[in-house]
Amino acid sequence: MGSTLPAVAEELLREIKKAFQETSHGIATFSFRLKFIFGPCAVPALDLVDQRSVTRVTAPSGRILYQVLGSSGKLYTCYSSCHFCTCPAFGFSVLQKSESLLCKHILAVYLSQAMGACQELTVSEEQLTSILLAEEEEEG
């Protein structure tokens, strides 16, 4: 989580992380605030976290990206370092229309990070490059 989200969103994600580190209690305590701040993508994002759909992909160089298996069964690549997702909803609702702070996939990444619920996958630099090139081919 960088400085790309409003301070109130950043603070809420920090509170969730702290609560899970200290007590590992459920997310229900935060659901109202999540819905208030992130709107309609909050519940679907929580569903993705519950389904363990978020995978943190790490290469030996330290480069990290996230892959989220969407509810449609499609795999989306998310970059938390620059607050970006490859899904159409991110491109339309976040970038073009500015109707949302983020899509359900990137929120699921942030929640998974805060809750310690990411799957972990270590790949070679070549594999990471293949993942990135595959995304580029799909877009182009």
Order of helices and strands: HHHEEEEHHEH
Enumerate the spans where pLDDT stays under 50 for 5 or more consecutive residues. none
Oligomerization state: single chain
The overall strand count is 5
Average predicted confidence as pLDDT: 87
Q: Please state roughly what percent of the residues sit in beta strands, choosing from under 5%, 5-15%, 15-25%, 25-35%, 35-45% or over 45%.
A: 15-25%
Rough shape? globular
The N- and C-terminal alpha carbons lie at a distance of 28 Å
Number of helices: 6
User: How do the strands line up in the largest sheet?
Assistant: 4-3-2-1-5
Helix content: 40-55%
The computed structural class is alpha+beta
How many strands, which pairing sense, and closed or not: the largest β-sheet? 5 strands, mixed
**Count of the separate structural domains:** 1
- Compute the CA-based radius of gyration: 15 Å
